Amino acid sequence: MLGRLLAAATAFIVGVISAGGYTGIVVLMAIESACIPLPSEIIMPFAGYLVYRGELGLIGVALAGAAGCVLGSLVAYAVGARGGRPAIERWGRFVLLGHRELELAERWFARWGRATVFWARLLPVVRTFIALPAGIARMELWPFVWLTFAGSLPWCWALAYAGFKLAENWNEVHERMHGFDTAVGVLVALVLAAALVHRLRALRTDRRPHPPAL
To answer: Rounded distance, CA 85 to CA 172, Å?
Structure first.
């Protein structure tokens, strides 16, 4: 089941970027930053592969990815600002967002304030949800926008560059590893599947009744 979901997500990402180029990257990264579990760890490396093929430019790919992050984050920000925590707790499970992820993002935002919007964008998992507590806190919009863009740009560039270098050296790696490329693909799939399982288990835990406080 998880393997089919991962394969479907990968095929969707590849199809959108292949057809839409920079626009496709903007759309996909906006989806991810709107808290929908579509991993940038697949989106941007494939964009880097197209850079290697000469179909796209590395700077353009990174800028498109960061722009998509801003657009999607504005959606999440609006949800947090208008619906508050109750709306997120009610509907978050439909995008695999549990209490743990939301509480983590809130703790970071409460401790570090505006700077969290920048630094969280450089980290997996929490980067996707940090716009929600920013919206709940009604952070000023323009600082939120430019901090989101500034934090997303190096993340997108790094993933795209990794995809570019992997494609650049793939023939050499393939010759050295022979049949082990399949094993690498399986390993990547297992890592992503494990992350999805963790999210699903966290949601089940969130739905269990908790004992009353003493």
So the answer is: 50
Any domain includes 214: no
Amino acid making up residue 54: G
Under DSSP, the state recorded for 95 is G
Let me know if residue 213 belongs to a domain: no
Residue 16 inside a domain? The answer is yes
Number of domains, the chain = 1
State the residue for tokens 């269990």: 208
**CB distance 38 to 128 below 8 Å:** no
Res. 91: pLDDT tops 70: no
User: What tens digit of pLDDT does each residue of 157-214 get?
Assistant: 999 999 998 887 765 554 554 444 444 444 444 445 555 555 445 445 544 444 333 3
CB atoms within 10 A of CB 126: 18
Spell 53-73 as b/e; 16+ CB within 10 A means b: eeebebeebbbbbbbbbbbbb
Instruction: Give pTM, 2 decimals.
Output: 0.74
Domain holding 60, by residue range, is: 2-164+172-207
Kindly report the number of other CB atoms within 10 A of residue 39's CB atom.
20
- State how far the alpha carbon of 144 is from the alpha carbons of 42, 65, 99, 117, in Å: 25, 17, 23, 7
Q: Is residue 86 part of a domain?
A: yes
